[in-house]
């Protein structure tokens, strides 16, 4: 394709993931001249089935979405190792190419600094984002049912009907009811019926890492919409730095092309939508004589307050079939312990199963997994039997596994940060991102509490618990947040409530990097809502 720069555009968007795609689509549909620069390639849709086969074929160690190598080098020098490349995608569509597709709204208490812990408040509230949440649900095609008594208020139904609960969900529901624990459906950005030109989910069950049918939303949908409205999308064009003029405004995004050349894309407004790691990295790489510590970094906070969601889980086997490997996505959850994670659990006869705790905890989101235990392929490869004996072993071992999961959010800690590692460079000679990550005591307490809740449910169900992922052996959900936080005080934040950087008048950030707190809900719907809000504010300035 032609990767030469366009004549001066109205808007240059850096990144073609969900945030960048929605910004580009909305502004292009308003008639503005939009250019999107994406570091990775454009993946052809008709290759998805082959990518699925690569993902499930034993012994294929290659990345399904071509991550790795010098281009994607990183460092992780923090107290806890951060495996950055495990779950990110550089390419048109970004992380939504392999995401699970769960889309919940944050709770009002997330914005207010509630939950009886020390989380700060956001400079915007739930009511500010409420209309954008609705717009985002329509844009992504969210399937859901209004049966969650703990969900924040909404103004109408989901665009699509929700998915029915799985068979294993019904097993959990019986045990939870005896414990006074509510179960409810999960909103998913996948079609339960035909929507927006895409067919309904057909049950491949390989949602992570690839949906071959296109029923699960990915951001290439809005990239194509933006192109239909006249936007120009340049792939394999990693932005090296942003250059400013004598007035301190961004004048051009300097990007590289596969032929080894650099180009300058000029525009009136710039939106960085490169995620919670690459966004601060780009700002730090854009240092100059005028911006010695990086662009938009007068506060010194670019890269600081890196946050994640930590996984808590437990599982084992039942003496009956659970069919928990038959669905590729989660259909039921419990948000009862989100706003009050320390509440007690007991049976209807008054017996207390889990005492109340008043310790400061993060919100806890409990998940009833629809995938648990080893796959039959894994069992067959690891077994020593053949033929009918192997089939008998598989029937005996497969299908009885059952598990719960959950997410716990980290509080914002200034020491957790993304910075540059000049000792390691990428394929263009730039310092790679260095993730300095630690967990903190509140996170560990919250993980332990999540495990206690999970064990209570599994014990009630009669599960022979064989594994637990908790405070000492957990890992990230790969939700990068907080590295260009939003606020009204330029000394304490990087962007203002309109998502424009405090220091640079024509530079905005549309990303989870602007999150002030992490909550414990999957962040993509909030990313989408903020991206639509960002687009509206950019339009006001054009």
UniProtKB/TrEMBL annotation:
Residues 87-310 form the Glucose-methanol-choline oxidoreductase N-terminal domain. It comes from the Archaea. Residues 412-531 form the Glucose-methanol-choline oxidoreductase C-terminal domain. Its cofactor is FAD. Keywords: FAD, Flavoprotein, Oxidoreductase. It holds the Pfam family GMC_oxred_C. GO terms for molecular function: flavin adenine dinucleotide binding; oxidoreductase activity, acting on CH-OH group of donors. Belongs to the GMC oxidoreductase family. This is GMC family oxidoreductase.
């Amino acid at each position: 394709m032609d990767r030469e720069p366009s004549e001066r555009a109205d808007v240059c968007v850096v990144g073609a993931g969900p945030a960048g795609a929605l910004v580009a689509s909305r502004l292009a549909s308003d008639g503005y001249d939009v250019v999107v620069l994406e570091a990775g390639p454009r993946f052809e849709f008709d290759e998805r089935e082959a990518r699925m086969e690569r993902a499930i074929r034993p012994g294929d160690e290659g990345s399904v979405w071509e991550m790795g190598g010098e281009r994607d080098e990183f460092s992780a020098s923090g107290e806890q190792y951060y495996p950055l490349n495990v779950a990110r995608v550089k390419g048109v569509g970004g992380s939504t190419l392999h995401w699970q597709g769960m889309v919940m709204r944050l709770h009002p208490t997330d914005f207010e600094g509630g939950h009886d812990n020390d989380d700060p408040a956001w400079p915007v509230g739930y009511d500010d984002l409420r209309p954008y949440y609705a717009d985002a649900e329509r844009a992504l095609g969210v399937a859901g049912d209004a049966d969650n008594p703990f969900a924040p208020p909404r103004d109408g139904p989901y665009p699509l009907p929700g998915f029915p609960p799985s068979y294993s969900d019904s097993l959990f529901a019986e045990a939870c009811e005896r414990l006074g624990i509510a179960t409810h459906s999960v909103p998913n950005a996948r079609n339960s019926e035909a929507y927006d030109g895409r067919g309904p989910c057909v049950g491949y069950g390989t949602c992570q890492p690839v949906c071959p049918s296109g029923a699960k939303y990915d951001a290439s949908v809005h990239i194509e919409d933006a192109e239909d409205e006249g936007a120009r999308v340049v792939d394999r064009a990693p932005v090296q730095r942003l250059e400013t003029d004598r007035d301190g405004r961004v004048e051009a995004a300097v990007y590289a092309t596969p032929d080894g050349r650099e180009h300058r894309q000029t525009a009136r407004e710039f939106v960085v939508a490169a995620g919670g790691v690459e966004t601060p990295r780009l700002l730090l790489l854009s240092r100059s004589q005028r911006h010695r510590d990086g662009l938009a970094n007068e506060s010194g906070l670019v890269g600081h307050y890196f946050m994640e969601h930590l996984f808590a889980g437990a599982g084992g086997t039942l003496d009956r079939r659970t069919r928990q490997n038959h669905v590729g996505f989660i259909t039921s959850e419990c948000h009862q312990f989100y706003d009050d994670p320390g509440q007690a659990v007991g049976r209807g006869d008054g017996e207390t199963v889990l005492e109340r705790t008043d310790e400061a905890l993060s919100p806890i989101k409990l998940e009833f997994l629809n995938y648990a235990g080893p796959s039959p392929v894994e069992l067959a490869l690891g077994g020593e039997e053949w033929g009918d004996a192997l089939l008998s072993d598989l029937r005996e071992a497969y299908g009885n596994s059952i598990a719960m999961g959950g997410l716990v959010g980290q509080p914002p800690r200034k020491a957790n940060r993304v910075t540059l590692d000049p000792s390691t460079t990428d394929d263009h000679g730039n310092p790679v991102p260095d993730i300095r990550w630690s967990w903190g005591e509140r996170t560990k307490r919250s993980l332990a509490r999540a495990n206690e809740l999970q064990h209570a449910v599994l014990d009630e169900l009669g599960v022979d618990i064989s594994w637990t992922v908790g405070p000492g052996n957990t890992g990230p959900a790969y939700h990068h947040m907080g590295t260009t936080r939003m606020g009204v005080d330029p000394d304490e934040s990087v962007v203002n409530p309109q998502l424009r950087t405090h220091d640079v008048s024509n530079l905005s950030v549309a990303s989870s990097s602007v999150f002030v707190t992490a909550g414990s809900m999957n962040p993509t719907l909030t990313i989408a809502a903020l991206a639509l809000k960002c687009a509206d504010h950019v339009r006001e300035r054009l």
